[in-house]
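Query structure, 341 tokens:
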């Protein structure tokens, strides 16, 4: 193949792969890269890491190494060659990686013998990830091959950056900004779905409404930032005790709601009590002296004979929480489902 035809062939490969990875899903981008990148680059192995600047961590999102079963995260400091590329913003090429100063032994499946190139993926001088390519059969990579790889890496960086931004936007749309759990908008939609499913198939559904006791006093005494710490801590406990299909959301202010499919009132009561007891154990430091907070909980199981809609279910759960508050706080009350009122 002549040089002109070779360049045309490479250019077409670049365009084709760019089109194939112009997606808004990291999983879909990963699938395309795994199936196409080794042949397009004419290499044996590759790995693609996302870079978490805040935590200075590298998160592996895709690769074609047979020795690696799943993705993982590593500190930037634990990979000297990727650290060098990230900090400099320049690619690092080692013609014989096993003879380089970055080599840490044959036990690491990510870094094999042969030539090795680490390329920082950048968008406007911001590092979004790192692409590593490795070929154990070729002695080195020529200038034209490297130039082609670097050009395509720019497209990979753009696609990955767009997908990350899209997923972050989707997450923010359904997530409470302070606590990181579901927001009210997502809760309302999910609760309606679970209510209709439970009503249709006769499966159990319970709600737990939780409220921080004397939260205004916490804010007035220790400040709103410390109050935020309390809310974040409670949200973390909710996530800890959530099962796969459970939903925990910030309901409003210092109130949180748990939607527990396939759970009766007694099961929901046990979960609420475990959260309440764990919350009591937490200490929030303030000027070297700690303070603790308590929560009150209302629990109700759906009774389709007296609850015709979601609002009635939530209303009775709210009444159960009010009873817990009114009878001394720091307790869990199972609400009555005898009537709609």
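Result returned for the query:
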């Amino acid at each position: 193949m002549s040089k002109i035809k070779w360049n045309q062939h490479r250019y077409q490969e670049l365009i084709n792969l760019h089109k194939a990875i112009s997606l808004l899903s990291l999983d879909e981008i990963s699938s395309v890269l795994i199936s196409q990148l080794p042949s397009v680059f004419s290499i044996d192995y590759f790995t693609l890491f996302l870079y978490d600047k805040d935590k200075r961590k590298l998160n592996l999102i895709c690769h074609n190494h047979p020795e690696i079963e799943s993705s993982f995260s590593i500190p930037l400091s634990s990979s000297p060659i990727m650290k060098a590329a990230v900090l400099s913003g320049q690619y690092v090429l080692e013609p014989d990686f096993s003879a380089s100063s970055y080599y840490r032994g044959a036990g690491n499946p990510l870094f094999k013998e042969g030539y090795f190139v680490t390329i920082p993926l950048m968008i406007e001088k911001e590092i979004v990830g790192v692409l590593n390519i490795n070929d154990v059969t070729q002695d080195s990579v020529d200038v034209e091959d490297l130039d082609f790889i670097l050009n395509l890496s720019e497209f990979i960086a753009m696609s990955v950056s767009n997908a990350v931004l899209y997923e972050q936007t989707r997450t923010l749309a359904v997530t409470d900004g302070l606590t990181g759990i579901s927001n009210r908008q997502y809760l309302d939609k999910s609760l309606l779905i679970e209510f209709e499913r439970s009503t249709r198939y006769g499966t159990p559904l319970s709600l737990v409404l939780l409220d921080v006791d004397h939260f205004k006093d916490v804010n007035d005494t220790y400040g709103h930032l410390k109050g935020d710490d309390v809310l974040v801590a409670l949200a973390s406990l909710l996530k800890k005790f959530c099962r796969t299909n459970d939903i925990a959301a910030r309901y409003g202010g210092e109130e949180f709601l748990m939607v527990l499919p396939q759970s009766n009132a007694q099961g929901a009561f046990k979960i609420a009590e475990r959260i309440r007891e764990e919350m009591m154990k937490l200490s929030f430091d303030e000027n070297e002296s700690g303070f603790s907070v308590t929560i009150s909980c209302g629990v109700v199981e759906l009774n389709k004979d007296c609850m015709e809609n979601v609002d009635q279910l939530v209303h009775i759960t709210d009444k159960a929480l009010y009873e817990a508050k009114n009878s001394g706080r720091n307790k869990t009350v199972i609400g009555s489902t005898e009537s709609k009122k």
